[in-house]
Write a structure and sequence with these properties.
This protein has 12 helices and 12 strands. The chain is α/β, with parallel strands linked by helices. The protein has a single domain, classed as Metallo-beta-lactamase, Chain A (4-Layer Sandwich). Strands 1-2-3-4-5-6-7 form a 7-stranded mixed β-sheet. Strands 8-9-10-11-12 form a 5-stranded mixed β-sheet, with helices on one face. The protein is globular and about 60 Å long. It starts with 10 loop residues before the first helix and ends with a helix. The N terminus is likely disordered. The chain binds zinc ion (ZN). Zinc ion binds next to loops.
Length: 362
């Protein structure tokens, strides 16, 4: 929690963030070394009955396109559930996208891949550095994967060091699930700008959209299958978190996703959408709507606490329920709008938002 202050540009915002997150931390007794979003994931891991990945032979799989698969996490729970992972089968081996939340989940992911192909695991691409997408990475690395990731690991770093982070996470998931853990998200191949890789004869366009969900986001596009792996830029209900990122960055990233015209897209959490463009559109509209509300409030001198009071209350003990996500995003966006109004000499961002909003009202 405390680490978040480093990202805060205004003291008011820092205080509000601390106040908001302190409530969540107290409610769930989550160790204070975890980041805001990590704390959310930690809370998710506590849900009962707890899944036992060591007893699960394989997770459900959905084919997204030729040789491209989603390993399905929980559906219908927004961000409140096990995340999705994906994999692409190439001529020489398997490229895995994201590694789930623990070594036990990583092993179940590996067993799941083995239900489709016996080819070697050659690469692991991480969409970002949140623990619920990366703490199973060591299993894939030990299976032979080289890691492709953004070099910016700030969202994973803990003020009290890596050991504190791991022991906090272990306290949440349990020893059994974390057995054999080691960090494995440091990239063998760092990607900090848009890069096209040919792996096993297949092309992977790896886009670096800039800070959107986190400062270390990667988007994976497989052009021959028209399949998009969007990480947490997309969540099944359209409320992507920008608590570690930026709503302006998210909007720009969504434009890039839409331009790809994907035939199939895997969100970071939840159901695979029948219509990927519709989910991108919904995510854009949710984000624009909150930006408009917060911008109006900042312009009218409404304090952050009063602005938050106009939103539905956060759900107690559910820090990434839909209402809780909207509220936490609002804190971030209020500060973004404040900064925009302090530093911008014209109303170009507001105009561009309201033009984009027109499509949301249809
Ligand atoms: Zn995330």
């Amino acid at each position: 929690m405390i680490r978040r202050i480093a990202f805060c540009s205004s003291p008011g915002r820092a205080l509000a963030l601390i106040a908001l997150t302190a409530v969540a931390v107290r409610a769930q007794n989550i160790p204070p070394t975890l980041t805001v979003d990590s704390a959310s994931a930690a809370a998710l891991a506590r849900r009962q009955p707890r899944e036992r990945p060591d007893t699960i032979r394989a997770y459900p799989v959905r084919k997204l396109g030729p040789g491209a698969y989603a390993v399905l996490g929980d559906t219908g729970q927004g961000s409140e559930g096990r995340s999705n992972a994906g994999f692409v089968v190439t001529r020489t081996g398997v490229v895995v996208i994201d590694a789930l939340a623990s070594p036990a989940q990583g092993k179940a992911l590996l067993r799941t891949i083995r239900t489709i192909t016996p080819l070697p695991i050659q690469w692991l691409i991480l969409t970002h550095h949140h623990p619920d997408h990366t703490f199973g990475a060591i299993v894939l690395k030990r299976a032979g994967a080289k890691v492709i990731a953004h070099p910016d690991r700030r969202t994973l770093a803990s003020e009290d060091g890596d050991d504190a982070m791991v022991s906090a996470w272990t306290g949440v998931l349990g020893l059994r699930e974390m057995q054999g853990f080691a960090f494995a998200d440091t990239p063998d191949v760092p990607i900090a700008r848009d890069t096209t890789l040919v792996l096993g004869g297949r092309t992977f366009d790896i886009q670096v959209p800039g800070t959107a969900h986190t400062p270390g986001d990667l988007v994976i596009w497989v052009p021959d299958a028209r399949v998009l792996f969007a990480g947490d830029l997309l969540i099944e209900d359209g409320v992507a978190m920008v608590v570690d990122g930026s709503s302006g960055g998210l909007l720009a990233a969504l434009d890039r996703l839409e331009a790809l015209k994907p035939a199939a897209a895997m969100p970071g959490h939840g159901r695979i959408p029948d219509d990927p463009i519709a989910l991108i559109h919904l995510t854009r509209c949710e984000t624009l709507s909150l930006r408009t509300t917060m911008r109006d409030d900042v312009q009218q001198g409404v304090s952050m606490s009063r602005a938050l009071a106009s939103l539905p209350p956060a759900d107690r003990d559910r820090p990434v329920s839909r209402n809780s996500r909207v509220r936490r995003n609002a804190v971030r966006i209020y500060a973004e709008m404040e900064r925009e109004l302090l530093h911008s000499s014209d109303d170009a961002p507001a105009k561009s938002d309201s033009v984009a909003m027109l499509s949301c009202q249809q």
